[in-house]
Specification:
Protein name: Integral membrane protein
Keywords: Membrane, Transmembrane, Transmembrane helix
Distance between the termini: 71 Å
Number of helices: 11
Oligomer: single chain
Strand order of the largest sheet: 1-2
Shape: flat
Number of strands: 2
Largest sheet: 2 strands, antiparallel
Strand content: under 5%
Structural class: mainly alpha
Organism: Streptomyces lacrimifluminis
């Protein structure tokens, strides 16, 4: 374990990234525990207010992110300063992305159905950074041999090809597959080869005069969403808390 940590984390200079990821995940989890306790009216916690205005935790998150980011640039890539700045940056990013939905909608949607987007973005970010730490990023290893240099050239070519397939997957409405495909080989290829989702750029461009392809695309998307929507929602509820039920709409009298 020590050798693996030295070779794959310390030697390539990824220790600050590990610290940032740890701080990011812990900050998000602690923040969700606190906000759920506030929501339930338990514990000594409460909303932070100034002059009667609710201060969302995205505000200190932005401050920590700025301080950690600029501090990392100023301190270099090693030493105590770099580690401290990485922790500050991770904490700030955790607070900011925990309210990603608020930033996206410019509205307090934290406990609404739209607020699920924050949990999804946090999980996606943590997964991508985790993949980088596990060595899926083919750059940044010191003391390369001639064989390593040749492998690096092949890895760079592979990343370029994967990025091309990621663009195809993105055009087919498969954003998650496209994002992971930049890092994990062949993931984007699967998304690029499969049918596009209805309403995607690819479907609008190439399925307009192909009713059979349109119907297959719609059926596959329906089956996929029906299979995975329930488990995905349960995991999001477990991590971030269950959203408030949507208010019933009052019928408009005519």
């Amino acid at each position: 374990m020590g050798h693996w940590l030295e070779r794959n984390i310390v030697e390539p200079g990824k220790l600050p990234l590990l610290l940032a990821l740890t701080a990011f995940v812990l900050t998000f989890l602690i923040t969700r525990v606190v906000t759920r306790m506030i929501r339930a009216g338990k514990g000594p916690f409460g909303n932070v207010k100034a002059g009667g205005m609710h201060i969302h935790h995205v505000v200190p998150g932005v401050v920590l992110t700025v301080v950690g980011g600029f501090g990392a640039v100023a301190s270099g890539q090693s030493g105590f300063g770099a580690g401290l700045c990485a922790v500050l940056f991770g904490m700030g990013a955790g607070l900011v992305l925990d309210e990603f939905a608020l930033i996206l909608h410019l509205d307090d949607v934290y406990w609404t159905e739209a607020g699920r987007k924050s949990v999804e973005v946090v999980v996606l970010t943590a997964a991508l950074v985790g993949l980088v730490l596990l060595g899926f990023l083919p750059f940044g290893v010191n003391d390369l041999s001639d064989e390593d240099i040749q492998n690096r050239g092949g890895a760079m070519l592979s990343v370029g090809v994967n990025f091309f397939f990621s663009l195809l997957a993105l055009s087919k409405g498969k954003a998650r597959t496209a994002i992971f495909g930049v890092i994990v080989p062949f993931v984007a290829l699967l998304g690029a080869l499969r049918l596009a989702r209805p309403g995607s750029l690819w479907a609008k461009r190439f399925y307009g005069r192909r009713p059979r392809a349109r119907s297959r695309s719609t059926l596959r998307a329906y089956r996929h969403d029906r299979r995975w929507a329930g488990p995905r929602r349960r995991i999001q509820d477990l991590i971030g808390g269950k959203p408030d039920p949507a208010p019933a709409r009052t019928p408009v009298s005519r």
